[in-house]
Amino acid sequence: MAQGHMIPMVDLGLLLADRGVSVSLITTPFNASRIRTTIDQAREAGLPIRFVELPFPFAEVGLPEGLENIDAATSMEPMSAFFRATSLLRRPLEQYLREQSPYPSCIISDLCHPWTLEVARNLQVPRLTFFSICCFTLLCIHNIWYYKVYDDMPDEHESFVVPGLAERIEVTKAQAPGFFDMPGWEKMAEEVREAEFAADGIVVNSFRDLEPIYIESYQKAMQKKVWTVGPFSLRNKSVAAMAARGNRASIDTDQCLSWLDSKKPMSVVYVSFGSLTKMNPSQLMEICLGLEASNHPFVLVIKKSETSEKVEEWMAAGLEERIGSRALVIRGWSPQVMILSHPSVGGFMTHCGWNSTLESITAGVPMITWPHFADQFLNERMVVDVLRIGVSLGVKEPTYWGTEAGHSAVSRDDVERAVRNVMDEGEEGRERRLRAKELGEKAKEAMEEGGSSRANMTHLIEHYTRHAMESMESNGD
Ligand SMILES: *[C@@H]1O[C@H](CO)[C@@H](O)[C@H](O)[C@H]1NC(C)=O
Ligand SMILES: *[C@@H]1O[C@H](CO)[C@@H](O)[C@H](O)[C@H]1NC(C)=O
Ligand SMILES: *[C@@H]1O[C@H](CO)[C@@H](O)[C@H](O)[C@H]1NC(C)=O
Ligand SMILES: CC(=O)N[C@H]1CO[C@H](CO)[C@@H](O)[C@@H]1O
Predict the structure, then answer these.
(1) Quick check: CB of 196 below 6 Å from ligand 1?
(2) Ligand 4 atom with minimal separation from the 33 CA
(3) 215 Cα to the center of ligand 3, angstroms
(4) Ligand 3 atom nearest to CA at 201
(5) Two domains, one topology: 3-54+89-234+448-474 and 239-423
(6) Which residue's alpha carbon is nearest to atom 4 within ligand 3?
(7) Highest-scoring range by mean pLDDT, 102-116, 151-165, 204-218, 268-282
(8) Gap between the Cα atoms of 417 and 391, Å rounded
(9) Lowest-confidence segment of 33-37, 94-98, 187-191 by average pLDDT
């Protein structure tokens, strides 16, 4: 029930349905209305997929109607009520599933819904946990917990080397909190961990050739199967499908494509920071000035929550006049996969949410990294240190729910330098681009016939189909 979780979960449902598996996607009305386009297309294509809308019990926990997605919240404050409400879906979900024929064979549940553990137990069906995070980041979080690194760490800004990894990865506690590792959230953190350990297996939106060592190590650490079946964004490569991903795009896709067509190959920087971050006006202006100084054409996505009169006036008065068609500003939701796949795009300035990071990897586009919170700093290490396909903007401190007014974490000079660095024609830039391209190719191979992700999906389906038939037989049905 956050954009970065919902998009890949819907993709996973569609990927299973593509293979003829009957899928019921459980969500709440608000969220369903967001993914309507994708839902309608799947139905028209005749996929065996059902969208089940359970009413969201917002009133029971004192939430306003419509606050069913984390990006509708403006602070951390309603969050505990939000998670309380989602766990109240346990009974209606169990009841719904009991009534189904055929009986469900397996539950796949997002990490944020540990309460599904009990549903699966009551129904006596296996349960897989789904993470839209890479195994590198999952293993880092696991090892930090396992080796009790934080038990004796008074300073959350002190950097340390993550134990038990093949590579030397340095982070701080502030940059690498575990899941829900915050004061007041201890119970949730414990439940999430317990649900992860109790899962029958783990499904990850990643692919073998991206991180073979980390997939294997994570599998060993968890002592259960880890199925890597991504990148999900490759499921449907048609322009219409790419454009409809996640939400209705706020720009005419033809207009967007013809702007991109008018630019030289690999010359454009795409700048977007995902659905939850919020840049204040002065930070947005610094970004614009840095992009302007870089002399590269750019696509900048500004969310509704970030637009203000101040920003709009400033852009109209100065920026748009000075740089004209060198910039394309998208206000609202951007057709990101479509843009990243365009040959004129040569770099992506990103917040390092895994969804966006993997989309960039898949498109073979090197990144300029600016993590904000949650798993994003670890994802940055993956991109910069492990894969070596990114340049960091050097941000060290996490920001939650928006930067403070008047404060800029990143200056125009930082932006200019990082953009020039990533778009660089020299050897370093060329090699980085080459590595990114190669990974993009491998990502595509993984999802093709005979590819590793496809094979994992086949095994996963066979494994749980067999399991369901065996338990039917042993029940004497
Ligand atoms: C996830 O994917 C969409 C569409 O591809 C992208 O625009 C969005 O920024 C991503 N969301 C997050 C939270 O990363
Ligand atoms: C991909 O998406 C397009 C446009 O939404 C749709 O017409 C097509 O059937 C989809 N293809 C597959 C394989 O699902
Ligand atoms: C996924 O596929 C790879 C490559 O074919 C294989 O090595 C791995 O064991 C598979 N994973 C599972 C959980 O079956
Ligand atoms: C913003 C949004 O999409 N709101 C919708 C949430 O879901 C309800 C019920 O389906 C709709 O009526 C709203 O328009």
Answers:
(1) no
(2) 3
(3) 10
(4) 13
(5) yes
(6) 452
(7) 204-218
(8) 10
(9) 33-37
Q: What is the mean predicted confidence (pLDDT) over 284-304?
A: 93
* Closest ligand 1 atom to 334 CA: 7
The pick from 6, 28, 30 for probing ligand 4's pocket by mutation, whose C-beta has the most ligand atoms within 8 angstroms, reads 30
Contact criterion met (CB below 8 Å) for 1 and 31: yes
Confidence of residue 86 (pLDDT cuts 50, 70, 90): confident
Calculate the average pLDDT of the chain. 88
d(CA 377, CA 379): 5
Q: Check pocket membership of 8 for ligand 1, CB cut-off 6 A.
A: no
Would you state the pLDDT for residue 394?
93
Strands 159-161 and 170-172: antiparallel
Give the three-class secondary structure for 350: strand
Evaluate: CB of 280 within 6 angstroms of ligand 1.
Answer: no
* pLDDT for the residue 457: 97
Of 213, 205, 222, which is closest to residue 141 (Cα–Cα)?
222
Taking domain 239-423, whether its CATH number is 3.40.50.2000 is answered by yes
Give domain limits for the chain.
3-54+89-234+448-474, 239-423
Residue 35, both tokens: 């993914």
Is any ligand 1 atom within 6 A of the Cβ of residue 245? yes
Nearest atom (ligand 3) to Cα of 463: 14
Atom of ligand 1 nearest to the CA of 245: 4
d(CA 406, CA 281) in angstroms, rounded, equals 8
Measured by CA distance, the residue closest to atom 5 of ligand 2 is: 241
Entry pTM: 0.89
3-54+89-234+448-474 CATH: 3.40.50.2000
CA-to-CA distance for 341 and 352, rounded, in angstroms? Answer: 17
Task: Please write the tens of the pLDDT for every residue from 385-430.
Answer: 999 999 999 998 888 755 555 567 899 999 999 999 999 989 999 9
Residue 306 pLDDT = 84
**Best probe residue, ligand 1, of 1, 5, 6, 7 (max atoms within 8 Å of C-beta):** 7
Q: Is the CB of 72 under 6 A from ligand 4?
A: no
Provide the sign of the torsion angle of the four alpha carbons 337, 316, 411, 432, taken in this order: positive
pLDDT at 2: 66
Quick: pLDDT tens for 23-43: 998 888 765 666 767 777 788
Mean pLDDT over 363-389 rounds to 96
Cβ–ligand 2 contact at 236 (below 6 Å)? yes
Taking a C-beta distance cutoff of 8 angstroms, is the pair 46, 22 a contact?
A: no
CA-based Rg of the chain, rounded to a whole angstrom?
Answer: 22
Q: Which residue has the tokens 């599998």?
A: 219
